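Q: Hi! First time asking for a complex rather than a single chain. Here are the components, and I think there are two in total. Is that enough to go on?
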Amino acid sequence: EVQLVESGGGLIQPGGSLRLSCAASGFTVFTNYVSWVRQAPGKGLEWVSVIYTGGSTYYADSVKGRFTISRDNSKNTVSLQMNSLRAEDTAVYYCARGAEWDPPDYWGQGTLVTVSS
Amino acid sequence: QAVLTQPPSASGTPGQRVTISCSGSSSNIGSNYVYWYQQLPGTAPKLLIYRKNQRPSGVPDRFSGSKSGTSASLAISGLRSEDEAHYYCAAWDDSLSGPVFGGGTKLTVL
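A: Yes, that's all I need. Here is the structure of the assembled complex.
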């Protein structure tokens, strides 16, 4: 059974850093695309970043230069390092698996990140 | 501002058929598959339709998807009270090298 479990969310001050982790089971992260998708309170879904099977990474313009996606094949995990956090980064962050060139099919339960002083 | 355009709301009565539209461009819907998700309050999105109008196991055949050019639509027939939720469309975007989403449509069952 495919499962994704996010962790690492919490309350952080503007300008701070946070690292989210996504533990995958039922599939291997290096044979699938894994994305981070966020949802601000009361808003829609917004793609944040993706890591391809070959290791290439891509980011939404809103987080480029501040966020870094990476994976650990030995632990079957994908992480999102978030720096220079802003109030507008406040959202539930979902880790999601997808096939090549396709939107996600399986999603985690999400982890809440709140950026506030 | 979402990349794909959906109406913010839709409604119908039990038993009715409703459709939700999703508009994009040649770099996303025009050249890739459209996925549809259902999201209930406080839960993660659930996949309803993927690739060529395929449904994951457990999704009733009351849900169907279609695509024409740079637009797509989700149809729900035999509307039920438990269908009241937010619905999102998504497609891969060749220019962004990632998936893009619609702004979501809140479906109300009257």
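A: The interface with chain B takes residues 35, 37, 44-47, 49-50, 58, 60, 94, 98, 101-110 of chain A (CB under 8 Å). Let me know if you'd like any chain examined more closely.
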